[in-house]
Sequence to fold (1457 residues):
Amino acid sequence: MKKILTIAACLAFSAGGVMAQETFPRNGVYDERAGLVAFTNATVHTDYKTAIPNATLVIRNGKVEAVGANVKVPAGAVVMDAKGKHIYPGLVDMFSDYGLPEVKVERRNWRASPQLESEKQGAYNWNQAIRPETNAVELFKIDSKQAAELRKQGFGTVLAVHRDGIARGTAALVTLAEKRENEVVLKDKAAGALSFEKGTSKQDYPNSLMGSVALLRQTYLDAQWNANNPQKEQNISLTAFTQANNFPQIFEADNKLNVLRADKVGDEFGKQYIMKGAGDEYQMLPQIKATNAPVILSLDFPAAYNVEDPFDARRVSLEDMKHWEMAPANAALLQKAGVTIAFTAHDLKDKKDFLPNLRKAVKYGLSEEEALKALTATPAKLLNAESMVGSLNKGMLANFIITTDNLFAEDGLILENWVQGEQYKISDVPADYRGVYTLKLGNDTGRKLLVSGTAEKPELQVIAKDTVKGNISIKGNLVTISFAESKDSKQSIRLSGWVADKNLQGEGQLPNASSVKWVAAYSEAMTEKEKKDRAKKEEMNAAIGSMIYPFQAFGQAQLPQQETILIKNATVWTNEKEGKLENADVLIKNGKIAKVGKNLSDSGAKVVDGTGKHVTPGIIDEHSHIALDGVNEGTQAVTSEVRMADVVDPEDINIYRQLAGGVTTSQLLHGSANPIGGQSAIVKLRWGKSAEEMLVENADGYIKFALGENVKQSNWGSTQTIRFPQSRMGVEQVFVDAFTRAKEYEQAHKNYNKLSKREKAKTPAPRRDLELEALVEILNEKRFITCHSYVQSEINMLMNVADEMGFKVNTFTHILEGYKVADKMKEHGVGGSTFADWWAYKMEVKDAIPQNAGIMNQLGIVTAINSDDAEMARRLNQEAAKSVKYTGMSEEDALKMVTLNPAKLLHLDDRMGSLKTGKDADVVLWNDHPLSIYAKPLKTFVDGVAYYDLERDEQMRKELEKERMRLVQKMLNEKSGGAKTQVPRSIKAHVVHCEDVQHSEEESYFAY
Amino acid sequence: MKIHKRYISALVALLFSVPVMAQVPAPAPKQSKPMLLKGATLHIGNGQVIENAAVGFENGKITYAGPQSGANLSGYEVVDVTGQHIYPGLIQPNATLGLNEVESVRATIDWREIGDMNPNVRSVIAYNTDSDIIPTVRANGVLMTQLTPVGGTISGTSSIVQLDAWNWEDAIVKADEGMHLNWPSMLIETGNSRADERLKRMAEERDKTMLELEKLFRDASVYKAGKHNSENLKLASMTGLFDGSRKLYIHANYGKEIIEGVNFAKNNGVKDIVVVGARDAVAVSDFLKANNVSVIYSGVHALPSRAEEDVDMPYKTPYLLHKAGIPFALDYDLSIHGTRNLPFIAGTAAAYGLDKEQALAAVSLNTAKILGIEKQAGSVEVGKDATLVVSSGDLLDMRTNNVTYAFIQGRNVDLNNKQKVLYEKFDNKYKKQQQQQVPAGATSSSAGK
Fold:
């Protein structure tokens, strides 16, 4: 009975708020009220830049009716005096999952059998991560708890995004009022949503970031094709994708690099995405700015790390430490650079951190005006909702907050949050009891109480002979106090009482169980000095260290510059017909090799003494997997659509480490998990530059193929026996099939392109297929193959398939049995890029020999030694030297295997690989014979820039330690100041080989 | 019928095939007469170098090692190695050579036994003297190895073998010399709530393992073989730890793990402790020194552990250990195909601060001392086994490493191996092809004759 009554009461209550539910039948009498309210004497911020003092705000029917200084209160209005208070437009969060079902992402166990096809039934897309048919508005349900949480932070309107999949469908703009869904939805489709995360999809493809990029690109193409050829295929997803494209597109990017990656996809298809960022955008400010993308900023600032234990503290990386310090400045840095910003509370685990963190962002340099804009006008405009929310002009929704003070003031409180004319009380004006009190405890008057902190959360110090911290809580009129008797005592004095005028008084209990009467007489307000100290401390904290490029250990505030360098009197390994020159000079100018010879001079050059030293061309690694966010999209047998260039990570420390080993250029290859892998990226190790800037200009395109045990999944466990091929027999068929399809594809496009304009209008255009396009490029010698290979049968096979299908294999990589078919390789004109002496790690390398490179080279095959290993790449010169040892190869030939020959294999020998006038100044200065174990680079130049310099490196080590020390001290202070800390994090990046199926940063639980 | 045909073709193949030598060469016969190598630069292994030296040995033992001028040549077969270098045979500790042929093929893996605590399993009995890999390792100057079981918490007992033998019994230099304890990894909190549950489970797991270890060591320390009603193989195999007859190799990398592990062993009365892996050894060098613990450092050709570390940290760690006064040796971190590159690890250590002779010691005499075989191996000194290498150039540099002789206990070891055979086979193929093609003119003129 009681229960029924409660429900009835609820219904009645909610009916009172009903304003416009015209289509719904009523049970009972109508109770429509206009909700006419006038707020007087307030400072009304009608928009982010306009504040009207002593203004009146009139609302009716959930909308603003009038606002201004001279507004008359209409008859019949409820008047609320808001004297001394501020009224702001309700805040807008344009990235929220409010009211939507939770997205539970379960990663499939890698040992489980693969899921090759979509499990979603119906006329949907082939890939489960493409779910543009999702409309958030259809899933949306009001959630009182979430709504209250967000309203407490001042929000009135949010964009509800269903964060599932790569194409996520549409998002709905809703208010946080607790009415019927029909009333709170402001825009059923306010935006389209995208990401690189496949969400709940357990389908194998894509299992890499580059796969996500490729899938999204292909989806754009498929949707266009589908829209133009509706008769070809009924596809709900593609139709929905095309429709969702009509709205502003919000892309959730979980780090700064993904912002850039997403923007590139957007550019390709004429879309300017709005980015949901992660908070690290300031670390690549110029590039982020260049995207022109508005960025929705996270206010999730990392807590200080607990660095008390010096051993454990080593686990905190420099970038994490610096990010801790700089994250609050992200918004200010972006905004000042001209990036349009908005804020979201989405990433905050505890939404209560929103206002404090927003204020922190202001303290770190963002103007209050801009902060408010980012929460009102900007999101409203980006979502085309500026006629409804984001300001408080006539006709707008009555969404506003009433605050005690300026919203950004440290102690400012939100008192009420009105949404669509509905009132929600947030907090009461707290009584402020801060100040100094003289405590009389029985007859003892020896103590003073110092109440500080905030009005809401007062803190207590008891000053006597010792100063001890105590606890005070004041609720309504009632006071509870406790503190230790003395500094060393564990005995507490506990007081209970009430507020009497400005004084506190009551009864208490002493540690000896006797009760006592007490009075705390108010003597003075919080001292000015204390206030000042507090402000000063905050100011100090807002000082941040300098930006470094890249944002990583051994990054620098200033990148090294191109110089004119003259290396004098060194042994110069030219790799040209002059061979090795003794006592020779090398002049580097404008990033090129200006001259090689004897007795050179240049008045503007910085002279480097090369006496007793050696100069060689920079080392080129034909087979590398460093600087990548992911190596394998090993899900399908053919993934030629994926591109390593999409996932270059310019901040990988291995770039710097390899510069220290003399490497200047690397081919970043896809892994070997499938017969036809992804497209390579060829980069120069320009440490500190962006991914785009690292790519070698106008380099030919390459692609990874693979044969043998990896592609047939021989060593992947007993569950990986489903994907075709599982034998070398099948591998051949994958190639024949792929190129047969590619030829048909090419023909279909050729036929179409030959048609006249009129015929074209009548004929449906063939679908563009990114996978087949890459293969057509191979057939047309616009893309070149580097093929992972081991045994002679498969090597032979691919050359035969190539001949039959009309393409050439450019390079066999690994090619450990190249020595067995070197004559055939020579005939086919293919190069070999191999290991010096690896073997015995699997069945297909049991016949590998360290003389392999020697034989291939002897037969005139362009032969290189590569690394496939981030560590060994630092010693490639020594790996080349092993051919001198095992086959008596000449030293000059050996050096060529890691310089000129890989340059030839990459078709870059016109620019790199030898020391010749006009070639790129990619040059290494060694302290010793470059093939010797005792040699180490003193300087490594890329384009004439000394990206590595041993002396500078030693200096940087010291500075790095100093910077870490500074940050450690700052964190310790923060901790002793009572701030939250987090335990040191340790994320280990895999050292990737091409065998690795998935490259993911893995959180390691082990100390080492 | 089919079978029959195949049989015949196999027979035909046998008849016509050139008698290629076996891929694993036969072990060298026992030293039959005294030998003297003269004219070389002798790198003793203890830091000393003697130019123009001679080394004599008889019945497998070194009888002379010093200046050529002081050698008594009578009765010796003299081999002139002028201009070359003589080194002690290098010793690879912490390795699975001969316990595994192909890393990815389970059937060839004999270094891991099931179960977590296997103090009683003995690696030596699985040692495959006919491994194709072993001869390739010898050819670079590595002549001894420590057969190291891997995995679990206590992976078993290792033995030292020399690399030229008919069977494992003959290969033994020192049997069952040490037990290998993989110190349970310390767990760290990640601050990631999603990981918390798993982390908690792992922490419980670790606690359990630690308790197991404590019980095992406690019980073993009071165990007296033969005096119990029922023999316990595990406990019996551990008794040597407490009288110093068997070493305890603690595999640990994190500084705190090293401290924890060593303290655990000491508190349990273990006499002879070696830390293996030891990536953080420099950071805890004071502790190691105070506790008189030696180190087998595994990570020279490795990446720094953290981005913030000096880029050459792994390369210079041997030097830093030397400077700190820690007795240490170097290994190749269990990689089989890396085993033959042991000399070059020492080379790298020399490039980054260590004196070349100290670097040599780190793969010879230091190793022998740490493994407890310094009385018979590790340096070229009178009375020790004549296990030594002659190289035409600096052994520690791949540019010059060229082993011309290897002697194990005085036996002149065959330096051929499967890879050389394959090399010759195909090199000959191409040479013949070229002979047929290239001298077109020459052929026609000879045809004219």
